[in-house]
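Section 5.1 Outputs to date
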Amino acid sequence: MDLEKRKDLLVALGKRLQNLSTEAFEELAWRAANENNWFTKQNVEKAFSAWAHELSSEKLNQWLKAYQLTPKSQKKIGLILAGNLPLVGLHDVLTVLISGHIACIKYSSQDRILMSWIVQQLISIDPESEKQIEIREQMKDIDAVIATGSDNSARYFNYYFSKMPHIIRQNRVSAAIIKGDESKEALTKLGDDVFQYFGLGCRNVAKLFVPTDYDFTPLIEAQMDNESVLEHHKFRNNYDYNKSIYLVNKEPHLDSGFFLIRESEDMVSPISVLFYETYKSEAELALRLSSVSEKIQCTVSNEGWYSGSFDFGEAQCPALWDYADGVDTLEWLDNLN
């Protein structure tokens, strides 16, 4: 399959996601939620909508213009997919397919329904694509690997795949940088970065950097539209548990009624909790962010005022060229030969 056919395949997939009937979508979303309770119908719909938007001819051409993508020989690329968000592993799958290599896919047990449906759609759109897709339980006889997991599994992956080209991803979170003069509208947009997908993604804001003596009241008040997350039993269980721990241990914290805010130098916060640190100057802030850069997936600030950051509300809207961990996966695949 040449590059133009591969591009057509991805565009056709985007159209299928966009034009899926209500009945077919609801049945698929119901199956996905039975497999993983975090995959609510609303969150699956968000993921489908985001991918339908990205898989257009214009977006693909913009993404691919800097690459050759004519491999001298096909390599078998092992893909150990994450499953914390709906279709979170799809970018890796499509990147391998568009590169011309063979995707050897190990589904996450948390996202098998949606990802297997995607693979079925790809093959039904163009049966020739089946030559580029292998579903695996074990990663044997592969030439390279892209694996996503926890910090603990990343250590295992680094050891196990040390003798072949590899990209190993581990826990990351995103951070919000607050000046203190943000409007209620801006802080409301920040709520999307915090609460979409219940805060389970690496692009979800889990850490705030705020000025010294920052008043959290406007921030908390701006999040009240997100109080519905408490209706999900798993989110509520996390909120109740973390709240009880802080109360029993007499740890200082703020309680909004549906999420907690606590000062901590840790980057990865528990579900339903936002950690924060204070800064006195932008120079001090830059130094701190540099020291934890390997733990940060992306940063957001109001209208993107901080260098390299997204605007509030855009953390969960990555483009095709916004690579996980800042590693250009497509360039890496293109250079395997």
